[in-house]
Amino acid sequence: MASLNVGNLGEYLREQRRNAQLSLRQLADAAGVSNPYLSQIERGLRKPSAEVLQQVAKALRISAETLYVRAGILDAERDRDEAETRAVILADPSLNERQKQVLLQIYESFRKENGFGTGEPAGPARDGEDPMDQGTGGGSSKAGGGDAAGSDTDGGRRRTAG
């Protein structure tokens, strides 16, 4: 398999793993990736996603941004703020994984709308999910009078189950 010009990342990861006194298998387990996949990253044969880099960085207790730069996902100076924003979103323990991905998708859409390039795509929404649908449950969130079909109002008063 040809090298994908991520050898610098692989060499750096190997060095950090050895400094942390972790075996390849230990780091793979801690990062939630397979042992062969991590080995291929270290050898420069695979280019990991930003999410995988985030997991590896967390397991090594190092900056994910450093790994993003070494992987060529980010330009060190130009994209520092973007990397920090992504890292904060991904590291927020009060959000579940789906919410993190939705926030990253929204963030990317605003960056594109404002004419900024993207680092790493946040990834597509899961099967049929609308990134803007926050799963609030229970019908439409549209406001206003509109059509009363299916409404639970009666003469302007809301009915409540009693």
Short description:
This protein is mostly helical and 162 residues long. It has helices spanning 7-19, 24-31, 35-42, 50-60, 64-70, 80-91, 97-113, and strands at residues 153-154, 157-158. Strands 1-2 form a two-stranded antiparallel ribbon.
Class inferred from helices and paired strands? mainly alpha
Low-confidence stretches: 1-5, 119-156
Q: For this entry, what is the oligomeric state of its chains?
A: single chain
Mean pLDDT: 74
- How large is the count of helical segments? 7
* Biggest sheet overview: 2 strands, antiparallel
| Alpha carbon gap, first and last residue | 67 Å
Number of E-type strands: 2
Considering DSSP H and I runs of 4 or more, what fraction of the residues is helical?
40-55%
Could you say which overall geometry the principal axes of the C-alpha atoms support? globular
Radius of gyration: 22 Å
Order of helices and strands: HHHHHHHEE
The strands making up the biggest β-sheet line up spatially as 1-2
Please state roughly what percent of the residues sit in beta strands, choosing from under 5%, 5-15%, 15-25%, 25-35%, 35-45% or over 45%. under 5%
Textual characterization of the structure:
With 162 residues, this protein is mainly α. The protein has seven helices and two strands, in the order αααααααββ. Strands 1-2 form a two-stranded antiparallel sheet. Helix 2 crosses helix 3 and helix 4 packs across helix 5. The N terminus is likely disordered.
Give the SSE map.
Elements: H1 7-19, H2 24-31, H3 35-42, H4 50-60, H5 64-70, H6 80-91, H7 97-113, E1 153-154, E2 157-158
Antiparallel strand pairs: 1-2
